[in-house]
Amino acid sequence: MTETKDSFTSAAEILCDELKSIMQQIPEGKKAHIQEIRLRNGKPLALSEGSAAMFVDSSGKILYSPGERAFRVTSRHIYETFRRLCSYSVYSHQNEIRNGFITVKGGHRVGLCGTAVVTDGRVSAVNDISSLNIRIARQVSGAAEELIGTVCPLEGGLLIVGAPAAGKTTMLRDIAYRLSLGVGCKIMRTSVIDERGELSGTYSGSAYNDLGLCDVLNGYPKGEGIIHALRALSPQVIICDELGSEEDCRMVSEGFNAGAYIIATIHAAGYEELMRRPQAKELLHTGAFRTVVILESADRPCRISQLIRL
Hints:
Blueprint: E1 2-3, H1 7-12, H2 17-24, H3 28-31, E2 36-40, E3 46-49, E4 52-56, E5 62-63, H4 75-85, H5 94-98, E6 101-103, E7 109-119, E8 122-135, E9 140-141, H6 145-151, E10 157-162, H7 168-181, E11 190-194, E12 202-203, E13 206-207, E14 215-218, H8 222-232, E15 237-240, H9 246-257, E16 261-267, H10 271-275, H11 278-285, E17 289-297, E18 300-309
Parallel strand pairs: 10-16, 10-17, 11-14, 11-15, 15-16
Antiparallel strand pairs: 1-9, 2-3, 2-8, 3-4, 4-5, 6-7, 7-8, 12-13, 17-18
Helix pairs in contact: 8-9
């Protein structure tokens, strides 16, 4: 498996100038494995590599404890970074902010923490941002090579299961690329429902990641995207990320009954945990998934632990 772009550098571009300078000084060998950059007001600048937490000093040296040498993030760093990731137009990103994240160029997803403004029992805004977590999106060529070789020709849908940072979205990107171009399989008409912009990394109408010949419905809610694809694009395969709601179950069933194979992801650390979740059971009962793929962990992203035929 090889990374097709310098994703770490792309993610670091989001940061304010002082933090970006520190990131640039991190050893190249480390950059390729860092999965998250986390800013907390008044706390050490933190990095994640699998399940391991790391920190840095002002010269970019990696530290393994948040001691006195660790560089500390200030409210100014967070404010400047937040404005930059909003392209200096916070108002235009209010809907994303309410949902707790912003997806930026490159498909990187930035989680937000702050003070919620609640209206009629729902979060209507988030003020006083105190924490930012940049999840680095990577396009890894070959991430799905083993899986495609095992399950193709497809005889049904795939449900990819893994804990956070186990490589589910990275796996989906490579599946989309391979199916749409016929790499290791026959070419299939493939529609991608990219609700959060993470799969394609679409920014200002241009896709940062290469999804081959996929039709990408960027920003569509999963349900509306599936219906639109079925009506307008005659897909053989529909790909979407992070299922879990009752509405998702209904839309997956509709897509399956219309004759499309569904390939999707869901959060769970393993099959037993998956089967303890009512929504997961309902998804499997739709009949849309013939194969469940369990990924290992954040320490070994995109590695298949189990492959279960239903």
